Amino acid sequence: MKMKEEQFRFIKQQLKKLTSQDCFYKRKLEGIDVDSIQSQEDFEKLPFTWKGDLREAYPLGLMAVPEEEIVRIHSSSGTTGTPVIIPYTRQDVEDWAEMFARCYKTAGITDLDRIHITPGYGLWTAGIGFQNGAEKLGAMVIPMGPGNTDKQLRMMVDMKSTVLCATSSYALLLAEEIAKRGIGDQICLRKGVIGSERWGKKMRKRIADELGVQLYDIYGLTEVYGPGIGISCDYECGMHMWDDFVYFEIVDPKTGEVLPDGQVGELVITTLKKQGAPLIRYRTHDLTRIITGDCPCGDPHPRIDTILGRTDDMVKVKGVNIFPSQIEEMLSGVDGASSEYQFMIDHMYGKDICTLFVEINPYANAYNMEMAIQSAFKSKIGITVNVKPVAIGDLPRSEKKSTRVFDNRY
Q: Can you tell me the distance from the alpha carbon of 390 to that of 67, in angstroms, rounded to the nearest whole number?
């Protein structure tokens, strides 16, 4: 990934502005001569920003414009630790809506669609981001927010919603309820825009088949506008990133070295135009890779792979590093296993005990599934686990992000 001349110009403008006023980055970049940054290589020597920095700036230490220019704040959805507060200017809100409308257009969504929004509103960026983009597009918005499944389905039927915006967990819950109630023939959905958490191929296929829609991965994070800075296209070969608003790098999570295109590493983002709270080399913790070559859809914007996991999602058991994406990939190859699982790690009698609860299809034999999944886990991931097959629907469904790995050792 080569930095474009225009991207470099925006970054230099940001750096000069941020180091010339009393704000977070003046202290962060103290001692660095901005004028000496003349190339991409020079830029890559700048220090990373990470979430701990943003927490230390609480509440409004990230604000990089006079307060009268701030029209809104958002906060990350995490429930622990000091919140991260991100201020937005009017232009930030407009830019975000522009990027989101571009996402909808990439997914083939038009102003004739009726967009059913289930992610939460309030401090979280999700619901209002989906809404602002839909209004920018000129589509009809059905701003449901999360919960109250009975009302969700009634409005979906009565309003003839054509696009569902949701987390993958809630999309699955709605798909299962539609099938259970036998109202599939009353549903008019044609597209699903799914974000907030990673999801495996098996889960994607279940949602797409049961809802009868084409699904699109949307990407974003509160610290960098929110959802809408990238989305997959009809060809489902990665997510196009709006590189006129963000510059991104892939780095080695351990060393911080920038990796060659195609190698998996941690996504690092620099905002090019953000005013309220610009970010320089922000480590997202998301694992992905840059996809090279042209996309069959013809969109020239560069692509990253769908998020493979997070550096902080990894657990270490018996010397083996395990990511949720590995479990999902393993289950996708086991016939009769569903996409839904929970991985429990406990420490008993001086050793780690792992239990994998997996939903299995009604026709599957529980004992055979237990043996097949246990064998696949050992073969593909490298350790032996206790497998507990359960019926479809037995594991909890969530309106937000689902927790699938529970490490009870600490």
A: 54
User: Encoding tokens for residue 311?
Assistant: 């550096």
Would you call 391 helix, strand, or coil by DSSP?
Answer: strand
Put the strands of the sheet holding 303-304 in their side by side order: 140-143, 114-117, 163-167, 191-195, 214-221, 226-232, 239-241, 303-304, 290-291
Q: Give residue 262's Cα distance to chain centre.
A: 20
Mean pLDDT confidence for 175-182 = 93
* Average pLDDT over all residues of the chain: 93
Give Dmax (Cα) for the chain: 68
Q: Where are the beta strands (DSSP E) in 191-289?
A: 191-195, 214-221, 226-232, 239-241, 246-251, 265-271, 282-288
DSSP state letter for 225: B
Under 8 Å CB-to-CB from 101, ≥6 apart: which residues? 133, 134, 136, 137
The pTM assigned to this predicted structure is: 0.83
pLDDT of 74 > 60? The answer is yes
The whole-number pLDDT of residue 206 equals 87
Contact 189, 211 (CB under 8 A): yes
Measure the CA–CA gap between 87 and 59, rounded to whole angstroms. Answer: 10
Q: Token pair of 97, please?
A: 């809506």
Torsion angles phi and psi, residue 208, rounded to 5: -60, -45
Average pLDDT over residues 376-390: 93
Provide the token pair at 255. 């060393």
Q: What is the length of the chain?
A: 410
Of the pLDDT bands very low, low, confident and very high (cuts 50, 70, 90), residue 112 is very high
